[in-house]
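Journal club prep — side note

Before the paper discussion, L.F. wants everyone to see what a predicted structure for a comparable chain looks like in token form. Sequence:
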Amino acid sequence: MTLRWGTNVDDSVIRNSRIRNMWADGVNLTNGISGNRGSDIEARTTGDDGFALFPAVDHRNEQQTGNVYENLTSLPTWRPRSTACG
């Protein structure tokens, strides 16, 4: 379970949020996304990534443009990454 997993999502906004005890990614935006914004978000006890923004090239090699993550806090994650960008 994640707070937000987005593929081919454009112009969405996630802000002023707290993510707790997900045991999966907090916010993961991938594959062909553009114009999305994540701001003022705190993630605690997420699984793989607290926050991720990357193209999963093993699926499709699509471009990500105009996406912004700002003012993020990632507290202890279950696995090693708090933030992943590719």
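L.F.'s comment for the group: The mean pLDDT is 82. Keep this in mind when we get to the figures.
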